[in-house]
Specification:
The strands form 2 sheets. A 6-stranded mixed sheet has the order 5-6-7-3-8-9, with helices on both faces. A 3-stranded antiparallel sheet has the order 2-1-4. It has one domain: P-loop containing nucleotide triphosphate hydrolases (Rossmann fold), CATH 3.40.50.300. It is built from 8 helices and 9 strands. The chain is 39% helix and 26% strand. A hairpin with a 2-residue loop joins strand 8 and strand 9. With 254 residues, it is of the alpha/beta class. Helix 3 crosses helix 4 and helix 4 packs across helix 5.
Length: 254
């Protein structure tokens, strides 16, 4: 482990979800299932006994197939989920970019949502208004800033969400595939801001399926598979393990 101060620490974290098999359609079915003592659900472990640390100032990439537990870990770190077991420690202000515009109110305009999001992050109205024009300029959505966000395309949503989260200057940035949306020019602009974050000593936790982004930008990577940490180390090494895992599964499928 690094001797640097730790921004994020997960210790033996497990996240369980209850999966409903079927719902009774009638009262008779409900009583029937009750008296037969039939279980209509099972518990699914999306993350299993995961432990890792992210030192302050480090950029960590989480990789793995869909359903491997990557986004669940981001939501645990962001406080969206409370883990079923284990402990999570986060040191510093955190801006989550987990779901596009997850905190936006669809009926409010982009400008109104900037203020709402900033207030929810703990900033004063004055602090948000001081940053408002910079957010609008970065988002590049023009006159739509005064239109309800329910009229926005997914790309416009992403640009505004990214602009808000990064302009308020958090100590920790959590990103879940949000940079997969938008044109190449805007993606370059986002990564330039991320590079500025890194130069300023910020901590970044990112989920992506783009291995080139992990190799180029991350200090370290973690491979998740079926909720378990399979590899944790330098990006190129972890990516190689991931490629071997995919190759073995492709052989097994045939």
């Amino acid at each position: 482990m690094s001797s640097s101060p730790v921004a994020i620490r997960l210790q033996n974290v497990t996240q369980r979800f209850r999966v409903i098999h079927e719902r009774p359609d009638t009262v008779r079915e409900l009583f029937s299932k009750f008296f037969r003592r039939q279980s209509s659900y099972h518990d699914f472990e999306a993350v299993k006994n995961a432990s890792f640390e992210v030192p302050k100032g480090q950029m960590l990439g989480l990789i793995g197939r869909n359903g491997s537990g990557k986004s669940t870990i981001l939501k645990i770190v962001s406080g969206v989920y409370r883990p079923s077991a284990g402990t999570v420690q986060v040191q510093g202000s955190l801006a989550p970019l987990i779901e596009l515009g997850a905190g936006f109110h669809h009926e409010l305009t982009g400008r109104e949502n900037i203020l709402l999001s900033g207030l929810l992050m703990g900033y004063s109205k004055r602090q948000v208004l001081e940053r408002q024009q910079s957010i609008i300029d970065f988002a590049e959505i023009g006159e739509f800033i005064d239109s309800p966000v329910k009229q926005y395309s997914s790309g416009m949503y992403m640009r505004l969400a990214f602009a808000v989260a990064t302009e308020v200057d958090p100590e920790i940035l959590v990103i879940d595939e949000i940079l997969a949306v938008g044109d190449a020019g805007f993606q370059d602009k986002c990564f330039e801001r991320i590079r500025n974050f890194r130069r300023a000593g910020k901590t970044i936790l990112m989920v992506t399926h783009n291995m080139a982004q992990v190799a180029q930008h991350c200090d370290r990577a973690i491979l998740l598979d079926k909720g378990c940490i399979m590899a944790n180390g330098l990006p190129d090494n972890v990516i190689e393990v991931y490629k071997r895992l995919l190759a073995l599964e492709a052989v097994g499928a045939h």
